User: Which sequence fits this backbone?
């Protein structure tokens, strides 16, 4: 039996030996596995690397939420159809996300969560965890991953 870990890289093979016991053996190959051995699952991107928000930013966010939550949600949320990227100057993942979008020539509106307007938009867009947060219509990506951004870019271009 051959179980694929990563197509074309490493596999596990289970061999039966005398006495009914089995033994697992790692195999390496330059050839990808046959089509029947390839996984057919769709990848879902969750919990990607992102920079956690510092305590002072979280307190600032809480103050803004308490002051005018409904007004903020109605007035500051990015418009449907716009691509919005929520960032912070101290966030390394945000810099990589911006570079990736620029390389892919994806137009976006950047919101700096360190400003009042940016934090209001972040809250209005439903931002909760860390940054970067990429929002395009109903789709959102929390954190940064090149494959996730590529998939979203392909979906945007398909519109």
Assistant:
């Amino acid at each position: 039996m051959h179980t694929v870990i990563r197509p074309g890289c490493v596999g596990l093979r289970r061999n039966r030996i005398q006495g009914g016991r089995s033994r697992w053996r790692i195999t390496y190959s330059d050839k990808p596995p046959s089509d029947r051995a390839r996984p057919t699952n769709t990848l879902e991107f969750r919990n990607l690397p992102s920079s956690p928000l510092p305590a002072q930013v979280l307190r600032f966010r809480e103050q803004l939420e308490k002051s005018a939550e409904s007004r903020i949600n109605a007035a500051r949320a990015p418009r449907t159809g716009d691509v919005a990227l929520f960032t912070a100057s101290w966030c390394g993942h945000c810099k990589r996300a911006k570079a990736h979008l620029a390389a892919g020539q994806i137009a976006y509106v950047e919101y700096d969560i360190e400003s009042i307007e940016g934090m209001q938009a972040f809250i209005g867009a439903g931002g909760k965890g860390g940054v970067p947060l990429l929002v395009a219509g109903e789709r959102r990506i929390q954190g940064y991953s090149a494959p996730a951004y590529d998939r979203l870019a392909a979906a945007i271009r398909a519109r």
Summary: Residues 86 and 134 are 6 Å apart (CA to CA). Confidence is low (pLDDT under 50) at residues 1-10. The radius of gyration is 22 Å.
